[in-house]
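Final report, results section. Input specification for complex C-07:
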Amino acid sequence: MQTDKSLQEVQSTNASLTLNKANTLPVIRIQPSHGLASLLKFGELWKYHELLYFLIWRDIKVRYKQTVLGIAWAIIQPFLTMVVFSIFFGRLGNIPSDNIPYPIFSFAALVPWTFFANGLTQASNSLVGSANLIKKVYFPRLIIPIATVLAGVIDFILAFLMLIGMMFYFNIIPTINVVWIPLFLLLALVTSLGVSLWFSAMNVQFRDVRYVIPFLTQFWLFSTPIAYPSSLLSEPWRTLYGINPMVGVVDGFRWALLGTSTCPGTMVFVSALVAILLMISGALYFRRMEKTFADVI
Amino acid sequence: MNDIAIHVEGLSKKFHIGKLHGKNKTLRETLTDTFAAPVRKARKLLRGEATGASGLDDTIWALKGVSFEVKQGEVIGIIGRNGAGKSTLLKILSRITEPTCGFAEIHGRISSLLEVGTGFHSELSGRENIYLNSAILGMKRMEIDKKFDEIVAFAEVEKFLDTPVKHYSSGMYLRLAFAVAAHLEPEILLVDEVLAVGDARFQKKCLDKMETVGQQGRTVLFVSHNMPAVTRLCKRVILLDEGRLAHDGLSHQVVSRYLSAGEGTTAVREWKDLKAPGGEVARLRAVRVKSEHGEITEVMDIRKQIILEMEYDVIKSGYVLLPNFGIINEEGIPVFVTLDQDIKWRRQPRPEGHYVSKAWIPGNFMSEGTFFVGASIVTLFPANIFQFNEDHAVAFQVVDSMDGDSARGDWAKKMGGVVRPLLSWNTQFNPSSI
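Structure output:
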């Protein structure tokens, strides 16, 4: 009986809803969300694009506040890793580098890697870090991790300029394939965002995530051909290696900038597929958990 | 039908709360629990039942079947005890959290002000924070540009516009935060306890601004513990009690209903069960207002003594306690605070047991009007720990029957003042000195 009544009321109010549209006042309906349809309302993100800009801008402004070296950290991080890699893997370990000077070989991979790893680490903690916002104001929560990952693009650009400088130093002229770089950056971004969406949403309820992430990035770093070339693997294993989307990114960067022999076409395709899957599943999981964020954070 | 701003129907919200742990657990139980809990949690997680890393065994309804309608331009107060569901209701209406069942319809742009300065970043300057905060509260960039000067002027921070807000004094910080919020122009505004912060001047500014917002024909939902403010700002008040809508009507009726809490009078409140406010040492049992003859009444003669009575249990011996009452008037102005003066208990640790403390307000001292009595106990030694602090526990009215022997004498019109003592006067006359 009771449900019947409320159902009727819902229908009658739905009718009044259309009536009100003529009144130009926007009508918002608040009710428990069910099913896939409610997960797919990504259009709302566009309504809040100004907030996205502001949050990106804030992240960039605040990132290196009260540090002595400031934005130089964007370059120092990958650069120092490159130095360490060059000494231990390049010099002492004698790891092959596709006939390219080892420093530039590893740096070309470390630049997108740093973008990915920093984005992942920061975005995964971004929701918990914005607990205060989440508990007090409404906006699509997706904006928070997206803004954090996007803010990292500035760091990437600086490190990338450094990479170009180093290439001049080593007398390496980029091939025409350099035009594909934005695409590989996009791939790194999608991967980073996909993983971040999963982890940031999980982190709201299970703070264990915070302890998993450093371990995971380290593990991921060594399972990506950064210190070594993917040419160590033979086909078809090499293509299969692309299941790790960062393999596609790293090989893509090396191919586009340094002209390493193999065009990683199919491998990049596999990587892109996995990355897109990660992002879609991440976004759906995020949307599903979103409604409980304010209650459990 | 078209003048409705908010329509709420059967709105309910269930919360999972952690399992209540018994206090007398053995070490063995604690140990087995430590190892069994992760397994249990993992199992729940896999089944998709988990909602948090803390336990998930008990649930409460923070809101249960609440329905009401708000017309456009109405200013409505929402009151209730702590945990009655007021904040949950606002959070659902501002879409921060989802209802478990029921629905709400909002007609018009809605802004919620659950806190001033949400999203302020201490490293950013005042100017930057105005933009950031406005964007977070839902303003468009163009609107912000247009109102920027107005916001700055309202906040009175012109000189420090480019200083990071972490160097602001807390007063400046609050002013800036409220200035941004005050310049929102939604059709519907939800406000939660914003007035509970800041000094008296700031609170007055907030209240005045709220009043203007209400007069501009906007719809305002105002959650507050501040009964005087609610009575002043709102014509209609909704009373929530344990998640249910207990009363909905004219503000003074609902407020007095709230204060009388089902006992038929605002002059007494009693707590029988575990819900009694209290800490580790003391627990409040009752607060009463009595006439000088000892009868419980809410209407007091201005000329007679008033007895404030507090009944409480001390559940842990050995603490020096300071029972005290605080009286505020209907404008929210604290009239006085009075502390236990009984010489027997001065600096004396109190043994466990049942206590009744009384305070006598002299006749011809209070002014006319409604007064709210807060009861509280704080430990004086070992440390200043509030055992409870029950604001607006009871209320009473002071009336002047105008018989001519009160402080107003033969004056029959309005008289100001926080108190109205009957003072002795002496007027000397010297006819020859002109």
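The first helix of chain A runs from residue 2 to 21. Chain A touches chain B at residues 6, 9-10, 13, 16-17, 19-20, 23, 25-33, 50-51, 54, 58, 61-62, 65-66, 132-139, 205-208, 291-292, 294-296 (CB under 8 Å). This concludes the modelling results for the funded period.
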